[in-house]
Prior knowledge:
- By secondary structure, the chain is an alpha+beta fold.
- Helices cover 52% and strands 9% of the residues.
- The protein is globular.
- It starts with 6 loop residues before the first helix and ends with a helix.
Amino acid sequence: MATQLRPEIETFITRMVERHGFEESDLKNIFNKTRFQPAIISAISRPSTSKPWHEYRPNFVNSKRIRDGVTFWNNNSRTLERASKKFGVPEEIITAVIGVETFYGTRTGRHRVLDALTTLAFNYPRRAEFFRDELEQYLLLTREQGTSTFSIKGSYAGAIGIPQFMPSSYRNYAVDFDNDGKIDLSGNAADSIGSVANYLTAHGWEVDGPVAARAHISGDKPDQALVKGYKPLHTMEKMRKLGITPLIDVPSNRQAMLIELKNDSEMEYWVGFNNFYVITRYNRSFRYAMSVHQLSEEIRAARNNKDAL
């Protein structure tokens, strides 16, 4: 016998019926079988991106992830090359995103996505609106794909598959990159590679543009370059006047941001450019974007060294 649903879930169901033509009885049946997961609330309340850089980095930029990244690249070299040519995103960046997200598809999540999104949509007030929107997108996605709403597993935040796309990103940016007539991010590396590249391009990836560079700090004005948010808002000319000098040659009119990363006993300074900002659109964290950048460079270097042997 069906139990009485919470009023806010009833309201959500009404919205789905009115907006998208779902059957009320179908949705009530689904939500009566959905399980609240307290562990999800606990996990999202202490994300790994909150760790200081010297603790965060070794989780993602390490010998195993570099070595497995070279293997992933070698196993998918033709697909990565094709994606890079089509979308303009380097192979190593696509590889590193997948490496950071799911260890190259080996850790895609164990939670039912329906449970995760429902838990967060109705039991996590701080971001309830975001997760209700994603729950809406998930129900639309499974209807479009003809997939059971209970069958897809993902992260505690409801991210799906090898590239960990939220349902809205899945619907908007996932592509059928192997042209088999369907999009599968849970088990298809080609679709995942093409989708990551498409996502980054759609969010403004600059072909052949720099990502980030170490910086030397002098004087007492660098804090004036620290701004809230993630966009590169200052020209390098202004950065240099504030005592911020990148350790690579950068045109004076290029927009940049100052990045502070806390190490054990000191700050590490970088300048980030447009492509660094684009990576933060995948996950809004400087530490995340920097780990993708550094892992990508390590993977390319390791692969080139193997090629040279």
